[in-house]
Amino acid sequence: MKKKLFNKYVIPAVGVATFVFIFYFYPAYSQNQDIQVPPPPFSEGIFPCSECHAEMKTNPRRRELVEAHDDIVFTHDAANRWCLDCHDAKNRDMLHLADGRLVDFKESYILCGQCHGLKLRDWKNGVHGRRTGFWNGPKQYLLCAHCHNPHSPKFKKLKPEPPPLKPGSLK
Q1: Distance CA 109, CA 23 (A)
Q2: Residues whose CB falls within 8 Å of the CB of residue 50, separated by 6 or more in sequence, listed in order
Q3: How far out from the chain centre does Cα 30 lie?
Q4: What is the pLDDT of residue 85?
Q5: Per the omega criterion (within 30 degrees of 0), is the bond before 48 cis?
Q6: How far are the Cα atoms of 1, 61, 88, 113, 146 from residue 110, in angstroms, in the given order?
Q7: Do the beta carbons of residue 129 and residue 35 sit within 8 Å?
Q8: Do the Cβ atoms of 79 and 155 come closer than 8 Å?
Q9: How far apart are CA 110 and CA 120, in angstroms?
Q10: In the 3-class helix/strand/coil scheme, how is the chain assigned residue by residue?
Q11: Nearest to 144, CA basis, from 161, 128, 167, 164
């Protein structure tokens, strides 16, 4: 009888407590963690966006861009996404989350993490992406956009290198 109660109540309680500790109290998972990143990799002359967009009327209609930004190839869930799903229509120098909160481009990982939560978790823990610094001290991360084009994030296919030569075949 005691074993049944133990299995029914104690083991699940320990599991929940472990989950709560890992995801809410462990610093690597903390939402308030101070994450240091270098500036985002903007194209030359593209930022701040408000320099061009300040006087423009916002056109929220999905369309092919022809006057400006026509070099952007948008394949990031293109059937369901559009520029203004991430870029803020009112403050062009900011991004916005699904709930409307504004985020700086230096915090774009928060925006990416809305859809790519497991990658965000791995990125914060140094498993995905690149992180430098100390195990138990300050760290610097690269933003998602340092490796992935946010408009077309899949890596282009690489041509494979030839296999290595066998040691005896060198002349």
Answers
A1: 18
A2: 91, 92, 93
A3: 16
A4: 92
A5: yes
A6: 48, 25, 15, 5, 15
A7: no
A8: no
A9: 8
A10: CHHHHHHHHHHHHHHHHHHHHHHHHCHHHCCCCCCECCCCCCCCCCCCCHHHHCCCCCCCCCCCCCCCCCCCCCCCCCCCCCHHHCECCCCCCCEECCCCCEECHHHHHHHHHHHCHHHHHHHHCCCCCCEEECCCCCEEECCHHHHCECCECCCCCCCCCCCCCCHHHCC
A11: 128
Cβ atoms within 10 Å, residue 69 = 13
- Contacts of residue 146, defined as CB under 8 A and 6 or more positions apart, other chains included, come to 38, 40, 41, 129, 130
The tokens describing 28, both together, are 């690597």
For residues 111 and 58, give the distance between their C-alpha atoms in angstroms, rounded to a whole number.
21
Q: Report how far residue 146's alpha carbon sits from residue 130's, in angstroms, rounded to the nearest whole number.
A: 9
Give me the amino acid identity at 81: R
- The pTM assigned to this predicted structure is 0.69
pLDDT digits (tens, 9 = 90+) for 3-36: 676 566 767 776 666 655 555 544 444 445 678 8
Domain boundaries, the chain: 33-154
Distance between CA atoms of residues 72 and 152, nearest Å: 9
